[in-house]
Amino acid sequence: DVKVTQSSRYLVKRTGEKVFLECVQDMDHENMFWYRQDPGLGLRLIYFSYDVKMKEKGDIPEGYSVSREKKERFSLILESASTNQTSMYLCATRKRYRGYEQYFGPGTRLTVT
Amino acid sequence: DQQVKQNSPSLSVQEGRISILNCDYTNSMFDYFLWYKKYPAEGPTFLISISSIKDKNEDGRFTVFLNKSAKHLSLHIVPSQPGDSAVYFCAASATTGANSKLTFGKGITLSVRP
User: Fold this and answer.
1) What are the beta bridge partners of residue B91?
2) Distance from CA of B81 to the nearest CA of A (A)
3) Percent of chain A, pLDDT > 70?
4) Does B66 have pLDDT greater than 80?
5) A9 to chain B: which residues are within 8 Å by CB?
6) Is B62 helix (H, G, I), strand (E, B) or coil?
7) What values do phi and psi take at B36, rounded to 5?
8) Chain B residues close to A94, C-beta within 8 Å
9) Distance between the two ends of chain B, CA-based, in angstroms?
10) CB distance B89–A43 less than 8 Å?
11) Residue B98 has what pLDDT?
């Protein structure tokens, strides 16, 4: 079974703070993704990484950056948190050449006040 | 412009009846489609998928139908159960091979009444 964990289930930060969200997977998957889910907007792709040290922008990368120094770990960084970044953040992974399915972590509910 | 559309935000059905969740897409390059189910405070879980070379795929109570000419797919749940109450996301992929990614719709909230 694929296990995808996220560092926090709930997080409250203040405007302007630097925020780190971490995702760890134990199944040797090459591809990793960060999404945010907002009511009425569905799942939107922020950034993805095809492999270690590789990253590509998704549909809404503004205000975010990522880091993938190790295969099992993919970090999402909010350089200066703003209230419009209050959201549910979801990490997903995929095994290269093994179908299209992505496997999701439990999510982090981030509130920026 | 949204490439995967789930135009109905919610659906309510009686337990035991059929639930039909619809999804439309605009990108003719999409060649693989997936449905995910999401409970509150949990990550989405994969439910069922279909390749563009097929028009139907069935897994237990869940069946997905694909109409390529209409760029439309639907998820049928028969019979519906209260535990099926969740948000359902339709997703599509246009890339194959090593590094595919998914485009998701906005989701449909299904409520199954006991």
Assistant:
1) B34, B104
2) 23
3) 98
4) yes
5) 41
6) strand
7) -120, 150
8) 100
9) 38
10) yes
11) 63
Q: Which of B32, B45, B107 is facing A100, going by the closest CB pair?
A: B32
Rounded alpha-carbon distances, angstroms, from residue B23 to A25, A35, B48, B92: 30, 20, 14, 10
A50 touches chain B (CB under 8 A): yes
DSSP-assigned letter for residue B105: -
d(CA A73, CA A78): 17
Of B43, B49, B104, the CB nearest to A106: B43
Q: Tens digits of per-residue pLDDT, A4-54?
A: 999 999 999 999 999 999 999 998 999 999 999 998 899 999 999 999 999
- Is B46's Cβ below 8 Å from some Cβ in A? yes
Contact B103, B6 (CB under 8 A): no
Q: Both ends of chain A: CA-CA distance in Å?
A: 37
Say whether pLDDT at B42 is over 80. Answer: yes
Report how far residue B85's alpha carbon sits from residue B102's, in angstroms, rounded to the nearest whole number: 23
Question: Looking at chain A, which residue has its C-alpha nearest residue B32?
Answer: A100
The 10s digit of each residue's pLDDT in B3-21 is 999 999 999 999 999 999 9
- CA torsion, ordered A23, A25, A31, A35, to nearest 10 deg: -30
Phi, psi of B80 (to 5 degrees): -75, 145
Q: Is A40 on the interface with B (CB under 8 A)?
A: yes
Q: Select from B42, B93, B106 the Cβ nearest to the Cβ of A100.
A: B93
Peptide bond into B79 cis (omega under 30): yes
| pLDDT of the residue at A99 | 76
Nearest of B69, B37, B63 to residue B50 by alpha carbon: B63
